[in-house]
Amino acid sequence: MLPFRAMLDPRTLSEKRTEILESCRRRGVSPDLDAAIAAQEKFTQAKTKLDDLNRQRNEHQQKGKGKLEPAAREAHTAEGRRLKEASEAQEQLVAEAQAEALRRNRELPNFVDPESPVGGEDASRELRRVGTPRNFDFPPLDHVILGERLKLLDFENATKVTGTKFYYLKNEAVLLDLALQRYTLDVLLHEGFAPYITPDLAKPEILNGIGFNPRGTETQIYSVADHDLCLIGTSEITLGGLYSDSILAEEDLPLKIAGISHCFRTEAGAHGRESRGLYRVHQFTKVEMFVFATPEQSAAMHRELLRIEELIFQGLEIPYRVLDIATGDLGAPAYKKFDVEAWMPGRGEGGSYGEVTSTSNCTDFQSRRLGIRYRNKDGKKKEFVHMLNGTAVATSRALIALLENHQQADGSIRIPKALEPYFGRSEIRRTPKA
What pTM did the predictor assign? Predict the structure, then answer.
């Protein structure tokens, strides 16, 4: 029998029924909780019966070790055969009950923070604004026009080669993308993160464990034909799966990792002016923060991830705002989520804020599915870790904010002081032939 890898603790579904229903109500979802509870009880009862049959088999085998008369030996053998057949039949019932209980459990989202605003996307609460959007003394251009004029971006040929929502970065845009990665990585190294470059593919069971749906019409995940692998949409997947089926030591927590990877998303249904250019694309590079923590550490670590995200964009001299994301706009694994939205002068009519980073505390929702626990310092108790993630920088969207906010009247782009050592110059001005 496989380990029971539920998203919510299956032992507490019944006793926390009211709390789970209220959390789902706040999310605006209505999973069949009673069916999940019933399925769990059926599995528990089937497992108890199997354990009892196995106990009887062990006792029966012990009795057969002594000397028995032929008739008694025959009866003992017959009883042993009956118990074995009954046990095997019960194992099948347990496997079926387990599969149904797990399927029902996976329909349940994580709990939500009681302090998160209730409602859909429009109900998200603005916590603060940092920096003032620039008052241009010339008509500002969006990043697509800037990128084409400075020969930084090529969407037309990428569409010819790969399809829509793909792009080439060219010339200084390549250097700027790499500079963003290294600038961000140095910030994270200073904050105590261990740097990783992760695989760009993962197994479907890892995606399921993190809370991504690798299959079906609603998926945002690319699957690789003839291979049991998927292209990752974020290194949250590969970093989260790093310690699957592992037991960490409490003294090593919080464990902080910075992961660099390409990210691939189908972006099904995405369209419109606000998705123009680099804002919503099928492939981009991202530096991700990931943390394994104790339950006592996770809330403070979540605030730390947000602080670091803000620090990075302050260094890039980009105005931004911070949102406490509403319950109805949370993904199933997230207990609480903050977004940082950068001011983008070319977005919409007259400019608007667009998401550039987010950070989520997923508590033990993912670790239960992936089997990631930690051993208390006394070495006697094992508990599930809390897992948190946060975008340090998604280079495609950061490029939008940099190009649009730092454009100059003569068509050049000013490079923020914090980025100059990594980029190697203070502006983008020249127009190469290629």
Answer: 0.90
